[in-house]
Each structure stands twice: as C-alpha cells, then as structure tokens.
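Bumping with the actual sequence this time:
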Amino acid sequence: ETFFSKPSGNIKANIRCGIKKPEQKLCHYDVMSGTIIVRRAAAFSYRLNTQQLLDSLHECLKEFPYFCGRLKQYEDHWSLDGNDAGLSLSIVQHDSAMPAYGYQHTMKKQMRGLCEPLAFSSGNKDKGLMGIRITHYKDGTVIGISNSHVLMDGTGAWQFLQRWAEHYRNELKPAHFTQDRSPLLFLGDDIQQATPSPYYSSIRISKLALAAFFARCIASFATGKTTVLHLPAATIANAKQQINDVLPEGQWVSTQDVAM
C-alpha cells in the first residue's frame, strides 16, 4: 500500500479504502444486471496531477466502500461484501499528444485500452468488481473506469466521477448517492424504504411482490409490442450539427443524446 507515495511511471496496484462494511443482500434484478461489465472514460484536455488524483480517490472511496468489495454467492441469494479487498488501479504514461477526443472524435475504438481490464466475478472468488486506469498524455489525461453493473449503473457512475472531482478540487458539496433501478418503480407501494444512509439508498421488497413483478414481465412478452426506430446516419449528423452550432464553444451533444 505504498502506492500513494510513488506515483511515477507505469504503475499497477490494488487499492483499498480502509473501511469495511457488512454484506448487502442483492435482489434478483441486481444479480441479473450484475453479469454486465461496463466501461466509461472521461478525457481532460490538460494533465491532471497524479498525486492529487490518488489522494482524492482514496478519500472518495471512503464514501463508496463497496467499490472495494467482492461478490458472495450463497445457496439462495447473492450478496455484496464490503470486505475492502480492493480494486485495481493502473497509471499509464504516454509521450505522445492526446487524441482530440470530443465532438466528431469518439474514443469508442480505444475504450478497452483506456479502461482497466476486468473479468466478471461469478461469486466466491477474489475478483475485483471495479478497475480504474489513469492515462497521462503530454497534454491531457484520460480516466477510464470498468465496473460490474452490480456496483452501479450510468447514474451511479457519473455521481462517483463527480464526487471524485469534488475531492480533487477540494470543493465538497452535500451529496446523496443513489443507484437508478427504474424497473423497481413499477412495484409502487410494495416497496418499503430501508434504513436511510447518507451515501446509499436501499429498499426492501416482499418475495410475493417481487414474484408478481417478474410474472407481469414474463406475461408481457406474449402481448407486448416492439417498436424499431430507423434513424439514418445522415439524419443524426444533421441534428447534431444544428444543435452543436448553437452550443457554447467547448460543448457538444453526443449521438446518444440526439437519438434519445
């Protein structure tokens, strides 16, 4: 754990937050979506300070202790164990200039190289659920994150990055972190709010309500309709251009935003 005092060159290490938390039993939806490994990356057009990144990450992880945990599999359920076994982090140094990531220059093809490799954990194995890769170029920095979807979805990922940025700038704001689980909203009054936490939102669902929810999902497959929208590339490009023409310099709209 001397990693934080030696941020030079290409480095790979296991990072712990120093806080252990009790196991959290996962619901069926968490387990199903947890089989997905997702990758996200944020590019900065200037070099970030390595030591400041590491110090702020260490403080940020204290608010997200389960990111350093492991999956546990039991006969009748899965749990997320906040045992602080750690997450993998690497620092990569490049002598070249950073590609002009941003509008009209996607990092999609380079995403795997910009994010830390992460293997899906099938439970009861000492495999991390999250990996972070910091890539420094001569004139910029890219932070890539790989994580099991059981830890967080898109909403949670950007909340984590925003909180890390606040620690980096030493400009902390009141925060309440959640994980968006939109299918659970259909359970309505069957959801009971569990003990509130300053950092996490959790819920309790009766087995009967959960069974009824999945039964409705399965039944809808037979009667439901699938609508396919055809959005030609030219249509998307034209819409993006019109929006980007009126946005301030340095801001742009993504293809996904236009499609949605």
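The tokens above came from a reply further down the thread. The CA atoms of residues 190 and 208 lie 9 Å apart.
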